[in-house]
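Same chain as my last thread, 219 residues:
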Amino acid sequence: MKPNKNLKTVIFLAATAFFATNVAAENTLNVGEGVNLLAANGKELNPDSLFSSTKVLSLPNGVNQILVNYTAEVKKGSEYELEHSNAFVLLFDSKDKSLTLSAPEIKRMKDLEDFETSMNWSFLDSSGDKVAYKISKIKRAGFQLSRDFENELEEFNKSGEEAALPKKQISSNSMIKEKNSKSQNNNNTKNMAAEMLIYWYNQADEKTRKSFKELINNQ
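reply #2:
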């Protein structure tokens, strides 16, 4: 018995419509050179990798919260060292957009200090229009061997800061949050190792730094 042609057509059109709807029902976030995506909507990104970093992220339509920082090679005397900005929390509302977040070029410590004060991130959609966002900073003094970004965001969202998640969304995130002490300890160990790699990079000569960069780029 041959399949009913009309039925096949209906199934095909329904599947196409379903696929198109699901593809469109999200935002795509791209980040520029040196920008590190640390967490999105309360969930830490790449906790198990020292070398890979998220550069493209799919986010649901509506209100989203991301945690980012910036890494730059800053000239100190005759050498360059890796320096990190503080972590910034951005809160924005977007639907079916391709977004790009980038930071200004930073070459000196003065540039980094100015960036910390101005918080002048460039946040644009695919048409080049500015994306409205609220921003706050999570400061941590001193050398940090490890950070628990999920816990820091959880505390931050209770603070009433401008970029804190709305209470309704905080409750929703708490219901789906899955985290145990074993994975948390593993993440802290990974973060500590990453910090130590940065420390030794800053101690190395130019030849060793070049080899280090090539190793990372080949991962």
